[in-house]
User: Fold this.
Amino acid sequence: MIHPAESNRAQSKLRQILVSLLLTAILFLGSIPPSQANSLASLEPYLDRLREQITEFQLDNGMTFIVLERHEAPVVSFVTYANVGGVDEPLGKTGVAHFLEHLAFKGTPEIGSTDYAKEAVLLDQLDEIFDQIKVAEAAGDQAKAAQLKTEFDQVQTEATQYVRQNELGQVIEREGGVGLNAATSADSTTYFYSLPSNKLELWMSLESERFLNPVFREFHEEKNVILEERRMRLENDPVSQLFEALKSEAFEVHPYGQPLIGETADIAGLTRPDVQEFFDAYYGPDNLICAVVGDVNPAEVKTLAQTYFGRQGWSSQKRSRAKIKKEPVQRGEKSVELTRQTQPWYMEAYHIPGSGDPKAIPYSILGDILSSGRTSRLYKSLVESQQVALGAQGFTGYPGDKYPNLMVFYALVAPGSDIDEVQAALHEQLERLKKTPVTEAELNRVKTRLKASVLRSLTSNQGMGQVLAEYKGKTGQWQTLFRDLEAIGNLTPRDIQKAAQDAFRSENRTVGRLFSADQAAEANPIEAAQPSAPAISEPSPEPVPEPVRAL
Assistant:
């Protein structure tokens, strides 16, 4: 199992994903001689042609569509990008964005029910009884609460009889669809799957209906699934706990400090009206971006989009969204400490700019220089040379990158070493980057490695759809990804040094230490028997993005 931090490291490097355009150009437009593969200038004609294959249009209600033609195979991938994530959740209702993602697969009045008229009555009854249970428990009337819970279980069993479980997925699979899934992050929520190209209208019908008339059925059953997910992936994972404690300490006011999966009490207390209210606020057409990539005709996509997504019921009224608080500049080092039954770990994080800021671009290269593979500086120094760590990694974009975020480094302390030694070894490498520019050769090797890693993999329709939609959602223009690609190619050693100097300052640092409870017990048996950690809010199990929803 890949640790959440490692998953985040791979997925959060959005700017490195930009290099996938190199491969995309090859797949779309013909092969490029290996001698030219590392030259950005040689790719400009191919990238120009790629841009010409992308069409964007907006419906009268504000919904945006991005269409990329690829006629190599008769398939189409669809990405619905909702510009809403964990940062938009109100206090006391953390986890609602992730909860809604789960419920978006439950169907509509027509899909997922044998008799929705009867089911709807029972769903309303469940909402009423749940509210009554909360009132009884708040009043300390346990007898009344128990009676209501028995009634609740009876109504829930009756409602279940009308449910056709996973009917949406079954319809899509029956029509040749694959990859039905979704992901929730701090910044956004995406829904995606692929279909044969002759099923374009089917997607238009199904997707428009599930976001126009969703039914949040099996609400309480899904709540139990999410609570169990939280227990398994957070409460049983000390390293994830440290990541979230670190994040919570680093952000004072910005909602990046909130747990993505939600606090246990918040999840348990969520109601169906809570989710409906969140949906109404953030799932309007003006807040949705649909990317369609594959064997399609843009004119046909536009006609069908107007028919299905532009129909009556899709309101064109812009909704006001809560203003995101701006995180103040950090003025001094912060730290958190946990003691758990695990090996000791060391982490530290630095505030860096968000994806819309050109100053953020050098950090993707900087992160690779420090921690990508066995030739990286951290691995060669901390693991091979000094042998103070069994592994050392880093990544940018935690817990998201739409807003100013964190660049995080973490290491598993080697037996016979301690956290202080790891900290000193890490700081030595960071100071080296601040004082001495990387060589042109080292910088070029990193750029080449990034390109080569992409060339070894295949860029899918879905991957391109996600990149296009995400750039549109985060920066306002999908064209920004081409400008960022050019900026990466133009980075100099001085740019990398300046980024290191700006970020790697003690007053900009948040430190996390995870001590081994076994070692603490050996050092001081009496003290180790006491509570081992300060009262820190339970962290989310995943750095962004939330793992895809398994159907």
